[in-house]
Amino acid sequence: MADRNEMTINLVVLGRTQTGKSAAGNSLLGSSDFVSHQSPSSVTTCCSLGCSCRISGIIRRNGCELALRVRVLDTPSYPHSGLSKEQVRDTVSSALAQHFGEEGLHLALLVLRADLPLCPDESDHAIQFIQELLGPTWKDFTAVLLTHADKTEEAGFSEEAYLHRASSTLLSLLSSVQHKYIFLDNQKSIIKEERAIVLRKLLNFIRQNNYQVLLLKHSKE
C-alpha cells in the first residue's frame, strides 16, 4: 500500500503463445503498455512491468473507499518459439524477484483461450512451469483467465454451458485453483465497466486469500 487510502495489487500473466497474455495485461491496466498482435511466432521475449493510474470506485475496506492501482508483469510465453523453457523460467523468476520481491505477488494469472480445448499435456506443462516459479503454494496464488470468451458466446455458450461442456482437464485445473477463474471478453475488455467487473473479481480472489502475498526470491539466492 502506498498510503492508507490506496491499495496496490501485483499480478503476473503467464501462458502459451497467442493466448492473449499481453492483451489481457493491457485490459487490466486500462492501457496499451504491452505489445500485442497476431504473429506466427512468440511476440513477447522479455518481461515488462505496467502500472495503472489510480482507479476509484472499485474497492472499499472498513467502510472507506480506497483508490486502486494495478501492477501487471507481462512475461514471455511458455512454450516459446525462440527461447528454451529454462530461459523463460529464469527470465520470469528474475523479474518476479526484481519487481515483487519486497511487496509480494497477489495473483498469477494463467491465461488460456476459452475458444480452444485444453489438452492434458498442455495443462501438465503449464502446472509444472507455475510450480517451478511459485513453489508448493502455487494453487493459493493462481487464477485462470479465459480469454476470447466473446467467441464462445458467439458459438452460443453461456459461461455455465461452457463449463458444463468443458474438458475434464480444464475442470480439474479450475478445481485445483479453488475455482478462481474469470472469462475475459476480448471485444468488451476495453470498456471501463467491463474492466471494473474483472478487477472486482480479482479483488474477491485476493480477499478470499486474506490479502496474503507470495514472497518471491531469486532462484539463485
TrEMBL record:
<dbReference type="Pfam" id="PF04548">
    <property type="entry name" value="AIG1"/>
</dbReference>
<keyword id="KW-0547">Nucleotide-binding</keyword>
<protein>
    <recommendedName>
        <fullName>GTPase IMAP family member GIMD1</fullName>
    </recommendedName>
</protein>
<dbReference type="GO" id="GO:0005525">
    <property type="term" value="F:GTP binding"/>
</dbReference>
<dbReference type="InterPro" id="IPR006703">
    <property type="entry name" value="G_AIG1"/>
</dbReference>
<keyword id="KW-0342">GTP-binding</keyword>
<dbReference type="InterPro" id="IPR027417">
    <property type="entry name" value="P-loop_NTPase"/>
</dbReference>
<dbReference type="InterPro" id="IPR045058">
    <property type="entry name" value="GIMA/IAN/Toc"/>
</dbReference>
<comment type="similarity">
    <text>Belongs to the TRAFAC class TrmE-Era-EngA-EngB-Septin-like GTPase superfamily. AIG1/Toc34/Toc159-like paraseptin GTPase family. IAN subfamily.</text>
</comment>
<feature type="domain" description="AIG1-type G">
    <location>
        <begin position="6"/>
        <end position="221"/>
    </location>
</feature>
